[in-house]
Amino acid sequence: MRHLLALLMLAAGPTFAQTEDTPEQTPAINVVSGNPAAVNIDAGTGQLGELIGLTPDTGFRLGGVLLADFNWLVTGGKEPGKTGWNFLFILGGNVDLDKTIGLPGAEVGSQFLLYKGYDVNGQAGSVLGYNSLEASPPLGRTELYQLWWRQALLDDRLTIRVGKSVPTIDFTNVLAPIPVENEPFPVPSLSGLIYTPAFVNPTTEGAMPGYYDSAWGVTLNITPIEQFYVNWGIYDGSLASGFTTGDHAFPHFNGTYFMIAEMGGTWKLGEDELLGRAGFGGWQQTGNLTNGTITEDGTYGFYGFAAQTIWQETGHADESGQGIIGFFQWGINDSETMPFNGFMGAGATAFGVIPSRPNDTIGVGAAYGWLNPNNFQRDHELMLQTYYQAQVFDNLFVQPVVTYIKDPGASPSYSDAWALSFRVTVLF
């Protein structure tokens, strides 16, 4: 059950999630994120590097992830019967500068991203987005996804990361766990849901950089005690004015900024010490934001999330553990131009429910967004999603996904939609 419990540690992001592997340790994999590019700072498991001799003791890490899915809009939406596919490839490497050149607490990292796909969310008329691999246009990208320097200070209680990165990894990230007791979990998640609200709070969408529009900026993390953290970040804010920050390799500071801060912590409930965690944050976007004839001078918002172990079963030393974890999200903003003004979401994941398949998971999720009346004629969109994620072998996972979209928000003329997806994830 130790692996299941580790999935519920602080979601303070990668700034203090960099645990050191030893030659005796083997990266453990439990549930894999429906979109690892959105919630994990390290690409894949690092086994690609080990194949060419880059073992953890060398200070070098090379890994990657490949995702591909097929989607069928069975009925409803904008284009019922339509199909589409998505393909994502990420290759990344890190260098521990302490091990390589003797610079304590320093690390550099970089990732390359290749994406190609279809407007499957547009086919369904979904503003929330039932498939997180499809983000904003263009729908074909080759880009420098990340390039950063991370410096740990004060016994890792303060870390600073400077460069091009993905803020949704550090902020609003309800799904990302943190390793405990020096156990490496390179690509775990609290859920395998694939819909977009699981990875970016809809009330920040259009302003907050993330997958796949990463941005240049600075991220600070403070962890005075193990059970509490504070994160703060400031980034290039030109995404809100329509500039695609992800597919531009160099900084593009035009006087607008996206600033965000988050604090959170963990707890244990009852005799079984059921782990839970929660976070709360606020953000501000500067600059003139426009939508048609409407203009506003910046905007701001608040969000929160929580996760709790609901049930766990111990005594399965040969398995990853059995249990159920639930999570909750919310967000609001004061924007006149962004797509959503409010959001609530929740979900649950069952781990190891089939004794002979300890690394399979079953999950459900619900997302409800209040649409900005300046942008849409409908005032809301509701999405329900369920999946079964199966580990075929080692680092290969497959998952069928069923999504129901009630009142697709793009147009009041679109009827309720049903979509089927089949995703394959390969980690290396």
UniProtKB/TrEMBL annotation:
This is Porin. Gene3D superfamilies: Carbohydrate-selective porin OprB (2.40.160.180). One of its GO terms (biological process) is carbohydrate transport. InterPro entries: Carb-sel_porin_OprB, OprB_Porin, OprB_sf. Belongs to the OprB family. GO terms for cellular component: membrane. Residues 1-17 form the signal peptide. Transmembrane segments: none annotated. It comes from Cerasicoccus arenae. Keywords: Signal. One of its GO terms (molecular function) is porin activity.
